[in-house]
Each structure stands twice: as structure tokens, then as C-alpha cells.
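User: Okay, second chain of the day. Same drill as before: sequence in, C-alpha cells out.
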Amino acid sequence: MGRYTGPVCRLCRREGVKLFLKSLRCDSPKCAIERRENQQPGMHIAKRRKSTDYGNRLREKQKVKRFYGVFERQFRRYLDIAGRSKGNTGSTLMSLLERRLDNIVHRLSFAGSKKEARQLVNHGHIRVNGKKVDVASYLVSAGDSITVKTRPRSLRAVQTNLEQLQRPVPEFLSVTKGDSPEGKVLRLPGIGDVSIPVQPALIIELLSR
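Assistant: Same drill. C-alpha cells below.
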């Protein structure tokens, strides 16, 4: 998947779920899915053919890639790691994607969108266990502490998001608000912690051919 530069609300409408690509807009009545009653983008919707099994599997993969903001090569690498690990491949794949640092920053509401979360990480605003980590794909572990650089500009941006965003924090994370916001990874995430409806089995079937 190449870098998409068009209107991101079309991506949510295409996949039929909120991908939280536009910060506060996704939680407001301006959300394209709610405003257009979950209508898919395009002029000739009525003329589209019925989706095939291959099309359903492909849509599931595209939905996950767009939600986590990863490219095809990155996605394949996560799949290879999941395939070599013990346990269910699909569940392990989703756990790896959930453990990405940019996703954790977003789920803690330190950032309004994945794009903003990646920017915070890449620009060195985020600390993991007290050390700067500027790689968005860094995989957190159980017990890790995620804090913000003690600089007014860094703290101000995160505190503003914590005040404005009213999204629930997932059960595998905890967050402490205040002058020094801090997030904790209580345990490794599972398939039940993913915030969008997903069927990993369809993705595995598609990529196993």
C-alpha cells in the first residue's frame, strides 16, 4: 500500500468502520460515516458487483493496514513473525500490531490520530522506561512505562489531547493524567483488545495462498 494523500474520511467509508484518522472529527457529528449513514464513496455504488470471498479477505487486510498505518512489506514482516510464534497466528499478528509504540500512544489518548502519534514518537517526544524511543514501530512489552519528554511544548500537546479526547482506555493499558502524563502497559494485548471489528482468519487465508 503506497502512501495515501487523499481525503482520509473516504478510507473509513470504504472500510465501513471508524479508523480514527482525523482526531476529534471522528468523535463528532461531522464524522463522515455517521453523516453519510455508512454509505461507501463513489458515484456508481449501485452498479458495483457483489463482493467475492477474495474481495472480503482483501478488504479485511486493507482495513487492518489502514487502521495501523503500515505498508505491505511491514505487514508481511509482522505476519512472518506471527507465523513463527507459538499460538494462533491471527491473534499473534493483531497483538504485534497493537504493541506498536505509535498505536500505544494513540490508545492512551496522548495523540488524536495515528499520524499525530507517529509524529510525536519520531520527533522524540515520547519516552519508554525513561529512555527516548523515536521509532514508531517499536514493540512495547508488559510492564513498560510510556511518558512524555519534560519540555513545555511536548507536555502541552499531550495534555490538550487528554483533556479533549474522551475515548476509553483499553484494559491492557492504564493512564495517569496531570502535570506528567504516564501510561502503563499492564499486559500484552490480545485479539479482544483491538478497537475495530476484525477477522484475522480471513487475512491469514488470503496471505497463505
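DSSP finds nine helices and five strands in the chain.

User: Thanks, on to the next one.
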